[in-house]
């Protein structure tokens, strides 16, 4: 083996030298011939780029990165109109303000909230009413902020009784925020207000999304015989006379774009896998990075005065709520640790695995998307002993996965969504777009489809996500047309744990924007159950925000789905 390798050493040396300039822009390596050479090439590349990249100074892109916004199936005029409307509707106030000194940015420690007295001449708070809270944002100098755009979250909770609900935050655009919290149970309840990011930090995130959609990059391995090469891939890659040629993997059905740089020696059809390449660093100036200090991210805003209230039971026969008060209702709330939807089907608890088996008996349950839907597969597979996972020899955490209960005829599958999936290594022949997978389903009353696609889109412009969802929505419409009884569950995004680094790639601010688009596009679609993972995470009285919500929350999600699969007969009759 060693003798064989040394034969190629001179060729390799020439290739390596001629490749160095090219490597400044592209990670383009020859793998396998000599692992050590590969890693030293990586090192060389990063040492050259760190020489060229002055620390703390943002380096403008040297090419026009439009990220293939206008590829994909042609939008109808209605869809194009919808896209413009959606993009307008999620415009963030104050996000284009630049050059605010850090000391004048929002400081959670100097900011405070005040519980407002009960409204409408009431003496106390009662179940069925609402609690109003006013948040006063201040900067690090302790001066009131005069403009909006801060990203705040709020909830009310009574941990002792396992109760919690999210609040609605309204930006008054003058440094004050009105929070409305629903009163849904009686007892002592505590209010929590969290600053996720200052408006100044949101401005930086918005700039990153527009200017650095390449801050997460991808790679593919190409292999044929004893030759192998790895090149950089993305939704769009800069092409030009100075660049390597491209391999075009644009999907023929949906038109979803995907490209890799062409390997120097191998053909495009020798691609064997797809993987997350890595995260680009040095994205921020020193000043900007201060806006992402740990104490400024997901930090509590304290109450001025009381942070808790006592909620009295509703008075029977007396409606406390005036019509104009009922404007806001969350999708549900927790009580005794269980999720209670405020509209739609009542939820049942599937505490025993036998109840789940009975409900899923005869069902085909297909799950598609990112790791947040894989959690559902994992939960069911682990909790229900009759479900046996079939060994497909899939890599861990990547899939595809399949579990079967052949006695009760239950099939469970999981498959990840297509590029830009950031999983470790997905075989190229397992890269599928959800829309195409849906087109391959027969569907019907015994079919359940669950889709979760959001997290891996957070680094791209919103148009990229809109286009992907449009393709999926069309495929769902076709599926429901040919098989009307199919249950389609679309999972929303959820808030997660953030630190200074994670924020730049996966901030909740990116997620909340994607989520707004997703909700608007699926909310009113008949036959689609929108599962509100955002609210189920935010409202939970004790569980922290995690990219993969705690098992407790997952259990509530599964209960919600199964309640739709197997509606309670008694409830149905009444
Ligand atoms: C990038 O290219 C697109 C399409 O060719 C063009 O519309 C856009 O103005 C360009 N943007 C920049 C910043 O050059
Ligand atoms: C890639 O292929 C698609 C469809 O096959 C085509 O529309 C697109 O223009 C191609 N991209 C480039 C850069 O040639
Ligand atoms: C309610 O808030 C007051 C004032 O902040 C505090 O002293 C008290 O301990 C709180 N009560 C509960 C039950 O959290
Ligand atoms: C299911 O478990 C929860 C939590 O342990 C419990 O509160 C609830 O009463 C149980 N429900 C049923 C139907 O067994």
UniProtKB/TrEMBL annotation:
<dbReference type="InterPro" id="IPR014756">
    <property type="entry name" value="Ig_E-set"/>
</dbReference>
<comment type="similarity">
    <text>Belongs to the NXPE family.</text>
</comment>
<dbReference type="InterPro" id="IPR026845">
    <property type="entry name" value="NXPH/NXPE"/>
</dbReference>
<feature type="domain" description="NXPE C-terminal">
    <location>
        <begin position="339"/>
        <end position="566"/>
    </location>
</feature>
<dbReference type="InterPro" id="IPR057106">
    <property type="entry name" value="NXPE4_C"/>
</dbReference>
<dbReference type="Pfam" id="PF06312">
    <property type="entry name" value="Neurexophilin"/>
</dbReference>
<dbReference type="Pfam" id="PF24536">
    <property type="entry name" value="NXPE4_C"/>
</dbReference>
<dbReference type="GO" id="GO:0007399">
    <property type="term" value="P:nervous system development"/>
</dbReference>
<protein>
    <recommendedName>
        <fullName>NXPE C-terminal domain-containing protein</fullName>
    </recommendedName>
</protein>
């Amino acid at each position: 083996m060693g003798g064989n390798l040394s034969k190629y050493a001179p060729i390799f040396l020439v290739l390596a030298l001629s490749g160095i300039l090219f490597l400044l822009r592209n990670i383009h390596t020859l793998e396998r011939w000599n692992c050590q050479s590969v890693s030293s090439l990586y090192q060389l590349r990063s040492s050259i780029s760190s020489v060229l990249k002055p620390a703390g100074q943002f380096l403008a892109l040297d090419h026009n990165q439009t990220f293939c916004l206008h590829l994909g199936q042609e939008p109808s005029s209605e869809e194009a109109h919808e896209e413009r409307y959606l993009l307008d509707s999620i415009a963030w106030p104050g996000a284009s303000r630049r050059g605010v000194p850090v000391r004048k940015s929002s400081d959670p420690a100097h900011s405070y909230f005040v519980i407002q007295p009960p409204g409408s001449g009431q003496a106390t708070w009662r179940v069925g009413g609402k609690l109003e809270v006013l948040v006063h944002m201040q900067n690090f100098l302790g001066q009131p902020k005069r403009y909006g755009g801060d990203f705040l979250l709020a909830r009310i909770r009574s941990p002792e009784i396992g109760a919690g609900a999210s609040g609605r935050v309204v930006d008054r655009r003058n440094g004050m925020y009105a929070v409305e919290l629903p009163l849904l149970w009686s007892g002592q309840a505590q209010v929590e207000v969290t600053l996720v990011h200052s408006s100044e930090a949101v401005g930086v995130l918005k700039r990153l999304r527009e200017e650095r959609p390449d801050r997460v990059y991808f790679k593919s391995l190409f292999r044929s015989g004893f030759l192998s090469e790895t090149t950089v891939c993305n939704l769009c890659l800069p092409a030009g006379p100075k660049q390597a040629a491209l391999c075009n993997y644009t999907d023929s059905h949906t038109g979803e774009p995907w490209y890799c740089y062409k390997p120097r020696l191998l053909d495009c059809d020798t691609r064997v896998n797809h993987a997350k390449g890595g995260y680009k660093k040095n994205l921020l100036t020193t000043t900007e990075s201060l806006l992402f200090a740990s104490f400024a991210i997901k930090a509590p805003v304290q109450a001025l005065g009381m942070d808790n209230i006592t909620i009295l039971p509703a008075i029977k026969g007396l409606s406390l709520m005036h019509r104009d008060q009922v404007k806001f209702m969350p999708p549900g709330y927790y009580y005794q640790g269980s999720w209670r939807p405020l509209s739609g089907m009542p939820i049942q608890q599937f505490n025993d695995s036998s109840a789940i088996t009975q409900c899923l008996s005869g069902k085909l349950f297909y799950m598609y998307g990112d790791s947040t839907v894989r959690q559902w597969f994992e939960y069911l597979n682990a909790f229900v002993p009759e479900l046996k996972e079939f060994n497909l020899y899939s890599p861990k955490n990547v899939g595809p996965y399949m579990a079967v209960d052949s006695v009760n005829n239950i099939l469970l599958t999981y498959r990840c969504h297509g590029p830009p999936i950031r999983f470790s290594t997905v075989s190229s022949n397992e890269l599928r777009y959800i829309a195409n997978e849906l087109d391959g389903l027969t569907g019907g009353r015994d079919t359940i489809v669950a889709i979760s696609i959001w997290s891996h889109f957070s680094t791209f412009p919103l148009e990229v996500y809109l286009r992907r969802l449009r393709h999926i929505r069309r495929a769902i419409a076709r599926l429901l047309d040919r098989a009307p009884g199919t249950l389609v569950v679309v999972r929303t995004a959820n808030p997660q744990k953030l630190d200074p680094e994670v924020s730049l790639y996966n901030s909740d601010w990116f997620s909340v924007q994607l989520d707004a688009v997703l909700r608007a596009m699926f909310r009113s679609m008949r036959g689609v159950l929108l599962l509100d993972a955002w609210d189920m995470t935010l409202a939970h009285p004790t569980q922290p925000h995690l990219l993969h919500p705690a098992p407790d929350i997952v259990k509530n999600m599964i209960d919600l789905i199964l309640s739709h699969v197997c509606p309670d007969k008694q409830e149905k009759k009444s």
